[in-house]
Each structure stands twice: as structure tokens, then as C-alpha cells.
Amino acid sequence: MSIFLTHAYYLQEDPVEAKIMKPYVPLGLLYVSAYLQREKVENYVFDATFSNREEQLQYIENQKPDIVAVYVNLMTKINVIKLIKILKKDARYGFPKIVLGGPDVTYNLENYLKAGAQYIVIGEGEQTMLELYKAITEKIDVSLVNGIAYLENNRVVKTPARSKIKDLSTLPLPNRDAIDISKYLNMWKKHHGKSSMTISTQRGCPYTCKWCSTAVYGQSYRRRPAKQVVEEMAMLQKKYNPDSIWFVDDVFTVSHKWIKSFVAETQQQNIKIPFECITRAERLNDEILQLLKQAGCFRIWIGAESGSQKIIDKMDRRVDVNVVKQAIINTNAIGIETGTFIMLGYPGETREDINQTIKYLKEANPTHYTITIAYPIKGTALYSEIEKEITVKPNWETSTDRQIDFKRTYSRKFYDFAVKRVVNEVEAFKSNNIIEKTKRKTKSIGALFFMKYYQLTS
Question: Integer distance in angstroms from the first to the last C-alpha of the chain?
Fold first, then answer.
């Protein structure tokens, strides 16, 4: 019996991502594949990123796998449901058992099961997928498998939660050999002049931001040994030679002890690949910034979400906006690029809060920033708070949580314009700064030239 691992993200169907063109490999699937491979379970990975549904279905028709396991997130839900319905009704594909996992399934169990999935993997997938595979192949009662859900007499059965993997060092490295990595490297080179690859060093996040989903790894903090992480960097450098690394962890510098160990390992193993990461402002200080720069860090994304302390407190971010601003300024000052995230339209946000956000962006002056309009993900504290105030809730099968709207201070259209206003004002400010710096530099060069000319002629 074989397992077919796939996802339903087709890059060319996403106009925004196709324009940005910064695709990364499906790391979660590759971890599951490696785990199954180590346990001698035959599995295939079909990476749909540069493909389409037709090629994906053709592959399934040719292979006739017994189990099709699909990773689902908010962006891919609609495509996954379409894929399920085709597999359920068309005999060409052999009517495989359909298993779903990923961040979007945990709080939508009944919807996905009634859409056609036989089993849902809740949380981390490696151990659960292996045990579910054995239960199916050996005809063991699936109710004995922890961490899954399924329908029985049209009712959802949810087995006891699976314990989180405590020792991440026991996991094999992602099975990158299962897909064509060169497609990613070449695409990055073509559009950005340099390639990038991903590494995961931790699972879970110990913080409590109300809008953030912890459906897969939970509100926890578990980390791979620094030595193992640097060995993975060395392997990637030798095998693929990427120009940079993106550490996908939620808070890369949450543990200063780990960072110090990581930097020491890069020195000991003589590995230095430029990398970028995400962290929180209060987990940065001068020493950590210097260590990160020493290890090759070229960009740090520092979360803020708003320039208004009132909104930050409503989000339960537990950080001072001035601490965030200073962290960005300090990071810029030592020559590391900065990025920050902004969310508009959070419950209770007013014009004054937006003005404070614009002021924050101008004063902090991050190298990069992204702006989204707040939307409630099912299972988060934000969703629970606004559930009774939802004003737009489209059909579940043909929409995502992004389309849900709720009673805000102003209309959704107002916040669409607010995004444009923030971008326009901040970019104008940046442009004026560049012009002023150029003028000052030109004056300085002119003054220096005059001084040298005067010295030569006097």
C-alpha cells in the first residue's frame, strides 16, 4: 500500500504570489515523507507549486495510490475541496482513502469530513500518519490512533489528542530529494537574482496573539539542537548552494541561550550562509543583534501589527510599541535590514490608531513592511470575540476565512482605502528622506572638493 502526499497550491493561479514569485518548498509534507521513509513506508510526494490540478490528477491516475494525504491551509482550502470531490466520484483514480492535515482542518473537522475526507490528522502529522497507515493496512481499529477525526454514522468521532513531539532531534531531515528543488532555486534566481531555501528550527509559539492560529504545533516551545540545525545548513550548502536561508520559525530569538549556541556552532563548523528570520522586539538586544550579524543574518522581521498601543493591547501582543520601534532602529543601525508587519481593521481601530501606525512606520523606518486587513481565523481568540458580530460569512466550500467580515469601527471599504493611505504616506516620507540624504551628501562632497581645491591653490 502506498501513500501519495500532496498539496493544492498552484502558484500560477495566485496572481499576487505569481507577481511576488518567492515560492518555498512544502516543508511540512517533506517532514512527513522523511518520517514515513525512515519507517520503510512507501510514499510519493507530488509538489503542485509549479504544476496544476490536471497534472496532479494524472499522476494519481497513473500511480493509483491507496492513500492520498493532502496538506491544507487557508489559502488552499477551495482547491483541496475540488480535488476531494473529483477523487470521490471518478473511478479512474481508484477511490483512494483521503486524509487531510494542516492548520485549516483542526477547527473545521465536520466540514472537511462531510466534503469527502475519510480521516483528518489533527496537529503534528509524522507519528499520526504512520499509525493511521498501519491501522488501515493491518485492519486495526482506527479509534486506537490518537490525533485523528473521522465520521461514524454521520457523526464526527475525535480520538484523544496526540502528545506533541518533545525531542525534535529525533525527527529526520525533510525529504527534499522527493521534489525538484532546482525549480525553486531557478525561479528565485530568475526573479530576484539570488536563491533561497527554508529551515525549521522550532515548533510552537509560547505567545498569545489573539489573531494567530496555533492549530498544528500548539502554544508551546520546542527546539532542535543548534548543532543539528547548523549541520543541516552545511548539507544544504554542499548539496544545493543556496544564496540565503529563511528560518521559518515564529520567534527565532525567543531563547538567547539557543542563539548563542547556534552562533558558536556556525563558527565551529565554519558555516556562514546569509539568512533572515522573524522575532519579537523584546527578544532582541545589542548582544543578540551583534551575534546574528556575525552569523550572517541580513534581515530581521520584527512584529508590531500596529503603531497604536491600544490596538497592540487588544491583540494581546504583550509588547510596548516604543520597544518595537527602537528594536527596528537599532537593527537598521548595525546594518541589518528590517521588516515589520501591519494589520489594519482590527476590532476597535479608529482613524487616530491608523495615524499612530503611520507615525510609527515613519519613525521606525523599516526596510520592508507588509499590510493586511484583519480577518478572523476559526479557532483563534479573535474569532471567538467577533463571532457574534460577523456580518459576511460566505459559503464555506467556496470561500476562505479571508472573506469573513465583521462589525468594525468603519466599513471594509474604508480600510481598503486606509491601506493605500498608509502606503502612500510612508513611501512619500521615505522618498523625501532619500532626496534629503542625497542633497546632504552632494553638499558634503562639494564642500570636501572646495576644501581640497583651496588647499592645493593656497
Answer: 91
Q: From CA 302, how far away is CA 317, in angstroms rounded?
A: 12
Alpha carbon of 92 to those of 21, 118, 278, 279: distances in Å? 34, 19, 45, 48
The answer to whether residues 320 and 281 belong to one domain is: yes
* Sign of torsion over alpha carbons 424, 430, 433, 437: negative
User: Do 36 and 90 reside in the same domain of the chain?
Assistant: yes
pLDDT 10s digits, 44-93: 999 999 999 999 999 999 999 999 999 999 999 999 999 999 999 999 99
**Averaged pLDDT of the chain:** 94
State the CATH number of the domain containing residue 146: 3.40.50.280
Give the predicted TM-score (pTM) of the model: 0.93
Model pLDDT for residues 176-194, shown as the tens digit of each residue: 999 999 999 999 999 999 9
The full DSSP string for 112-128 is HHHTT-SEEE-S--HHH
DSSP, collapsed to helix, strand or coil, labels residue 321 as helix
Task: Kindly state the cell numbers that stand for 269.
Answer: 563548523
92 Cβ contact partners less than 8 Å away, ≥ 6 residues apart: 61
* CA–CA gap between residue 102 and residue 368 (Å, rounded): 29
Q: Is residue 15 part of a domain?
A: yes
**Domain region containing 64:** 3-158
For residues 334 and 340, give the distance between their C-alpha atoms in angstroms, rounded to a whole number.
Answer: 17
- Whether 11 and 81 map to the same domain: the answer is yes
Say if 90 falls within a structural domain.
yes
Give the C-alpha separation, 36 to 144, whole Å.
19
Residue 5 CA to chain centroid, in angstroms? 20
Judge if 258 and 127 occupy the same domain: no
